[in-house]
């Protein structure tokens, strides 16, 4: 980059579009159902089996044919002999007309039966079930395939897989899923001032919280980044560290993205032959953020060193690349009306709380180095000044 004009600083939305354009999907792979947690489906998913697999009892009670109660009245009740019992997991024997069987919840309903009477409603006299009214078929019977029929599409391509989805697919007999491949990620914290562990010998040092925080953010999305040891403020060492990490699909540095005397990121990237797509975004905090492509094809994100700015960079910009690589659409925030101090031509990120009633409350302390407000916050408000007034978009915190 040395001697070359710095790319124009894009707006927040334009920067996300630039990232998505250069974040190609990585293909697909087949994984076991449990291993699909926090992955994105790479194709439609169909049920392998009917669910329920058979007509099943929804209650403990008595199974019989509703037609056997057609003539029942209080004066002339139907009295059905109790001829056996059906347990869950056991295939029932043939059902004789005008009889009933005890049945357990989840057990197969015998062929010819279409009604299950809960045991607490039953009147049993001399081993006979006494019924004093006509009953309509279907009560407390879970019909075969009523939730999903074998071969039916139950999940669309591009779906984020949650524990609930895994539970449903297990019921449908699905054992494997085709999912989008996940990128490998290397995190490189930079700065002579960073401490990996507390130390009394370096009272002017600070803890490396950024790479810890970003690692946690990525783990919450099912990714396992490689977190390297802090790299010192030396252009040659930084260049070597980035080169060594460039076999990853994504390389992320924290710190050193500004223009100070000890910010060597631009020099290191220039020596490596990287293509810088933008260095700086019209946003606060996080203005110095850098996005480039390394000669290996790896995407490179240079995040600022202030913790909130680093978190925003990982949450929105690295996040945009991850969504595109997984085949997910661009994230869209919920538009809300807000009142806050505007910055012309600058997107402002505000820590906020969505109250139980839906009201959005902007927190008082918006400084880029303070973490306490993040503990209280549960969302971001992304604010832009427009000719029509202030516009805010609400996004989840992570």
Q: Would you kindly provide a written description of the structure presented here, covering whatever features stand out?
A:
One of its GO terms (biological process) is Mo-molybdopterin cofactor biosynthetic process. It catalyses: adenylyl-molybdopterin + molybdate = Mo-molybdopterin + AMP + H(+). Its cofactor is Mg(2+). The protein folds into four domains: 12-26 and 182-325, MoaB/Mog-like domain (Molybdenum Cofactor Biosythetic Enzyme, Chain A); 30-51 and 146-180, Alpha-Beta Complex (Molybdopterin biosynthesis moea protein, domain 2); 56-142, Molybdopterin biosynthesis moeA protein, domain 3 (Beta Complex), CATH 2.170.190.11; 334-396, Beta-clip (Beta Barrel), CATH 2.40.340. 18% of the residues lie in helices and 27% in strands. The protein has helices at 12-21, 163-171, 209-219, 235-245, 265-272, 307-325, 372-376; strands at residues 28-32, 45-46, 56-57, 61-64, 78-86, 100-103, 115-118, 124-125, 128-131, 141-142, 153-155, 176-180, 185-189, 194-195, 206-207, 226-227, 250-254, 275-279, 283-284, 290-293, 299-303, 334-337, 347-354, 360-362, 379-386, 389-396. Strands 7-4-6-5-9-8 form a six-stranded mixed beta sheet, with no helix packed on it. Strands 16-13-17-21-20-18 form a six-stranded mixed beta sheet, sandwiched between helices. Strands 19, 22, 23, 24, 25 and 26 form a six-stranded mixed beta sheet that branches. The two termini are 32 Å apart. The model has no long low-confidence stretch (mean pLDDT 91).
């Amino acid at each position: 980059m040395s001697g070359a004009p710095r790319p124009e600083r894009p707006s927040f939305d334009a920067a996300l579009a630039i990232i998505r354009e250069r974040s190609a999907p990585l293909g697909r792979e087949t994984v076991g159902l449990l291993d699909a947690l926090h992955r994105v489906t790479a194709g439609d998913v169909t049920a392998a089996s009917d669910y329920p697999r058979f007509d099943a009892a929804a209650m403990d009670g008595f199974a019989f044919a509703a037609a056997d109660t057609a003539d029942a009245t209080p004066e002339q009740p139907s009295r059905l002999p109790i001829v056996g019992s059906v347990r869950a997991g056991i295939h029932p024997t043939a059902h004789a007309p005008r009889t009933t069987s005890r049945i357990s919840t989840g057990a197969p309903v015998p062929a010819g039966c279409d009604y299950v009477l809960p045991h607490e409603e039953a009147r049993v006299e001399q081993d006979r079930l006494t019924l004093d009214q006509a009953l309509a078929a279907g009560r407390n019977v879970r019909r075969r395939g009523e939730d999903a029929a074998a071969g039916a599409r139950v999940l669309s391509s591009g779906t984020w897989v949650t524990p609930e989805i895994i539970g449903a697919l297990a019921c449908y007999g699905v054992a494997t899923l085709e999912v989008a491949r996940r990128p490998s990620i290397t995190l490189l914290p930079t700065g002579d001032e960073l401490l990996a562990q507390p130390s009394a010998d370096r009272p002017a040092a600070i803890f490396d919280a950024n790479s810890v925080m970003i690692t946690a953010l990525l783990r919450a999305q099912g990714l396992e980044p490689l977190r390297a040891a802090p790299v010192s403020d030396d252009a040659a060492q930084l260049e070597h560290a980035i080169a060594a990490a460039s076999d990853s699909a994504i390389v992320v540095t924290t710190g050193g993205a500004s223009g100070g005397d000890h910010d060597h990121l631009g020099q290191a990237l220039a020596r490596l032959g990287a293509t810088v797509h933008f260095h700086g975004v019209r946003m606060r905090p996080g203005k110095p953020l850098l996005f480039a492509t390394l000669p290996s094809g790896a995407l490179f994100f240079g995040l600022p060193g202030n913790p909130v700015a680093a978190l925003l960079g990982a949450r929105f910009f690295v996040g945009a690349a991850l969504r595109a690589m997984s085949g997910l659409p661009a994230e869209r925030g919920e538009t809300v009306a807000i009142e806050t101090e505007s910055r012309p031509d600058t997107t402002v990120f505000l820590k906020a709380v969505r109250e139980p009633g839906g009201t959005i409350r902007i927190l008082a302390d918006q400084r880029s180095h303070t973490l306490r407000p993040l503990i209280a916050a549960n969302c971001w408000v992304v604010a832009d000044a427009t000719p029509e007034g202030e516009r805010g978009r609400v996004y989840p915190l992570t």
